């Protein structure tokens, strides 16, 4: 059966985006909604206005479900309902009855027609998460619970890297990556074809394995919900939950939920219809991996024309580092030093980071 959406979790670390964009109170952000983590985490961190856009209605429905869970439930309930922690299908069904009152009629109808995703845990029901879980279960068996938990006992990146290289970097794990991310397998089951537009012939498996080492070593494992979720299929420690699911974050999301406007549209469509100066912060996710060179250059030109003075933008990519259009020289610049610094502490460092500022 075809998954409802590509991603149950947004794959950008909101703390990185927060620092890259230099988020301040009163900022006006346009963001790719994806699975909702960026809009929700950023309003949990700061009082700003967000227009969250996506061309996928189903991804927007997922993001709104997460917002509803924040407003309707306590922390432990919200985490188990969404699938970050364990719960029975029946328990999630009962919690949905409470969340439903915080959803619009269209979302209530959508989720009632797709209760299998709710009962599974919505963050577990994405195409990528379902695909990855098949291999991470095997990886957990290969590496062993005890060895993996050794990462939690190492305090510094150097200690974690030494531990990884000694106990976790095995030929069998590398083989697992070659199978999981073989283009013919990954293209059909793990990601939509459009997401590999610029992948070319390079060894994606080798690239992902190198980033996996960074994933395990760069940040404290106990505080990285991405790491715990990918390896164990759940978040092990409440303090590692996303910012919008912390007690303080949930309270702020409850207060600021009206700060987010959800829109089914492309970011280009929204920018084209808004007056210049509407937004001063731009979150582009990795849409450049899904777009042609010409279309992405057009997006950057539109962004530059519509941005408020001294605006910031952040983008991600795996496959293609789109150059800045020559026509924007002197108007849009990249901060390579900041991007390099921030990616070193990113909780999900599989994507490269691009930080831009309008002049």
Question: How is this structure best described in words?
Answer:
By secondary structure, the chain is an alpha/beta fold. It has a domain at 133-240. The protein has 18 helices and 7 strands. It has helices at 14-20, 37-45, 57-72, 75-82, 89-99, 105-112, 115-120, 127-143, 145-149, 157-168, 171-180, 183-189, 204-217, 225-232, 247-256, 267-273, 293-306, 336-343; strands at 28-32, 49-54, 260-264, 281-283, 312-317, 332-334, 352-358. A 7-stranded mixed sheet has the order 3-2-1-4-5-7-6, covered by helices on one side. Helix 17 (293-306) links the parallel strand 4 and strand 5 (312-317). Helix 2 crosses helix 15 (247-256) and helix 3 (57-72) runs antiparallel to helix 4 (75-82).
